[in-house]
Amino acid sequence: MTGLAPAYTEAMKTTLQLLVLCIPAPLLAQPLPAIQTVTFERGFRVNGAPFFPILLYDAPTDDATLKELRDFGFNVLTCKPAVTDDLRTRGFYGAVHPGKKIDSLEGVLFAIGPDSPAMYLKKDLLAQVAEANAKVRAIAPGRPVMNAIGYWEDEPAGVFAGKLPSKLKYDDLAAAIDVSAPYLYPVPYQPVASVGDAVARARIATDGKKPLLPILQLFAWKKEDRYPTPAELRCMTMLALVEGAHGIGFYSYSHVTGHPKTTIAAVQPELWQSMKDLNGAIADLGPRLLRGQAVAAFALDKVGPVKMRAVQEKASIYAVLVNTAPTRQTARLVWNDAGATGHLKRREGKSVEIAQGAAVLTLEPFGVEVVHWAKSP
Predict the structure, then answer these.
(1) Nearest residue to 140 via CA among 294, 35, 225, 13
(2) 173-187: per-residue pLDDT in tens?
(3) What's the pTM value of the predicted model, to 2 decimals?
């Protein structure tokens, strides 16, 4: 503003400040703290503070796209090491394939090791993975190494045929690496419920002591294949949280099978737009399920397609119920303490009747219900 009168300059500054205040908060770049440490304790911690990753693969880093991704609630992007510091100042951490050198680790949350190692490392799998990941770790010291691992063998044919991986290629592999990222793209060949099976299997293999970050389906195997519906994607996501995920990733923004030089936002606008509300739910429920204490105050009265996880926060209990079936289901919650009294409400605030120590909820196909129970004073 060289050469302008001081009064005019101050007026311009005031106008710009007012314009900034008029921009919705999610669109403003909120810098993330420079990363000093990344640890794991019932969840990821950055500099000792809890951090729940919501990761997106293959997104461009132009200003317009980054504004949209912030608005949608993403906080980690796969990217090149050179842009991680810039992305951090604009509200994202990076997950990077290190290459030969990383100048700064302040914006690097994950270093990415070999993808699909069971498909490509054929001899002495665990030793080869350990060797490859050690090289990555040497380039990005202090950062967990994430490996995307397949849940079906011989992809894509194994996905079509439902060929599940051996213990070595999935369970033992998950137990041997820093961060397991099972990539789970079942639609249209496998049931949506397979996402829960995959996350549970990895959790059991690691005894719950290592982080799991499932990568879910914004992707089609073939050009003619359908994508998941918003309800199916929400079901898969909440099922992963119920089974103990410590973060959620999505593949992919820019890899659209059969449609080069475009994006999922352009090809599947309804699915893409559903991500905004979905990520909001992830940001709330993911950390809540991790920090809460597991409880058995109430349970489903039968084993079936509805899965549930309940956790206690002080005197309250939150439960997430997920219908993995393509048909409407009825879930009956039964209180183990027959004398317990309280109020059960859905997420939107509507009360659910408790009669004779039980509550009945109807879930739509692939539907999700979040309920909150507070004990009567």
Answers:
(1) 35
(2) 999 999 999 999 999
(3) 0.91
